[in-house]
Amino acid sequence: MTTFVDRVTLYAMAGKGGDGCVSVHREKFKPLGGPDGGNGGRGGDIKLIVDPNVTTLLDYHHSPHRKATSGRAGYGDRKDGPAGEDLVLKVPNGTVVFDKDGNQIADLVGNGTVFIAAQGGHGGLGNLALASSKRRAPGFALLGEPGEERTLILELKSVADIALVGYPSAGKSSLIAAISAARPKIADYPFTTLIPNLGVVQAGETRFTVADVPGLIPGASQGKGLGLEFLRHVERCVALVHVLDCGTLETNRNPVADLEIIEDELAQYGGLEDRPRLIALNKIDLPDGAAMADMVGESLRDRGYEVYPVSAASRAGLSDLTYAMARIIQKTRAEMAVEERTRIVLRPVAVDDSGFSVSANKDGSFNISGPKIMRWVRQTNFKNAEAIGYLADRMAQLGVERELFKKGAVAGNEVRVGTGDDAVIFDWEPTIESGAELLGARGEDVRFDSVWRGPEKERDQLTTEELARQWEFTVIDPRTPALVEELKMDAEDVAEDEAASEENV
């Protein structure tokens, strides 16, 4: 049964926000007391937190799908809905988070480090929050936003100061068991170690951790053996200790050749060239092992390595090796103490950022994209005509319609908000304000084949006596002189017609 997992795929689904409430306050002798619908609760987040008691990602290997609770809908009487509970997932120290495309988005190092893997949706506003001086009694509320859904890849990289690398059966597990309290599996066959083992070593006043990595063989960087699967566990180490087998029974192997092969694999893996190296010539308790250590020791020192003949079985030379490790750790920690803290750079959104973009398609349709627009669409109840009108007002106020006109959109064009299956498609009908650009210099509208003319109103035919009684037409008003003169001329024409008809009679 699998007990150690260092790479899993996590499907995180945050909680949905609760819907806003549509409610009207009612009491005795006051049936319509105004809107009082509360807001919906916020959906729960999914958070990753580093826990020192967790050493593997096994839980997420068996249960990769995790979902947070959703927020509740709002209530009447100005009561907001309760928020959803956050789902906290515990991960080992050194967990690296990648997105589904393989891009690193978080490196969780240090106990208590928190990362929001998926953010819960915002709750919808109730009709109380949507009320204004122009909209006194909204008959709609905003829907809650859906929670964020993300596919994440969690990869564990052990956080250790020293890494023990070498061929299978070189004695790495025996060495870590001799210098620490770790008790890894030890046997006389290759690939006994199937998972990295960590041990805490005390050398004087310096305490550090040592990682025992499964054995490397030629081609490990290309996936042979177990090397490629666990080489990531040495990336965080301060120094590498090559454990060379001086008592091997294989005639085609020797410590110098093993060192060159392992160094070649580390170089192909990359990223470990700057780490200090120590050489541990193991198994000097054997007669052949001691002779081999004496034979290759000077050659390795000439190459610039610090060489320490040791025996994990008899514990000979282990003190010198552990203090050499401690000196490297002390030097590294002293250099890290004087480093300046990384400055946090904040990049706010530009002042002139409209928050949306409009693009024209070859088929004559248009696409509108932007986080603000998408949030508004998700919050709109398209079964409510008033809610749709509210969305149209918000988009027009943001400048979406003017941007559509600039891109060449006319009434009836297909407009898509968003992409994929979640896109909202509608036929665009511009408002009067935004359609002013389509009007010509003389009131013509390019959307119509002919000039639009309003219906002619029939003028009331009044008699002379009726006109005389209209005192406002007989008084000369300097504000509307043209209107007064026109009505006087009409009255004189009517009087002449009546006099002519009387003469004929």
CATH fold descriptor of the largest domain: Rossmann fold
CATH A-level architecture of the largest domain: 3-Layer(aba) Sandwich
CATH homologous superfamily of the largest domain, by name?
P-loop containing nucleotide triphosphate hydrolases
Query: Which percent range fits the helix content?
Result: 25-40%
Number of strands: 18
Structural class: alpha/beta
Overall number of domains: 4
For the largest beta-sheet, the strand count, sense and barrel status come to:
6 strands, mixed
Principal-axes geometry comes out as elongated
Question: What do the pLDDT scores average to?
Answer: 78
Give the low-confidence spans: 187-192, 434-454, 477-485
Residues in β-strands, percent: 15-25%
Number of helices: 13
Cα-atom radius of gyration: 40 Å
- The CATH class label of the largest domain is Alpha Beta
State the end-to-end distance. 123 Å
Topology:
Layout: E1 7-13, E2 46-50, H1 58-62, E3 65-67, E4 87-91, E5 95-99, E6 104-108, E7 114-118, H2 127-130, E8 149-156, E9 162-165, H3 172-179, E10 197-203, E11 206-212, H4 227-230, E12 239-245, H5 255-269, E13 277-282, H6 287-302, E14 306-309, H7 318-337, E15 357-360, E16 366-369, H8 371-378, H9 385-398, H10 400-406, E17 414-417, E18 424-427, H11 464-469, H12 471-474, H13 481-504
Parallel strand pairs: 1-3, 2-4, 9-11, 9-12, 12-13, 13-14, 16-17
Antiparallel strand pairs: 1-8, 2-7, 5-6, 5-8, 10-11, 15-16, 17-18
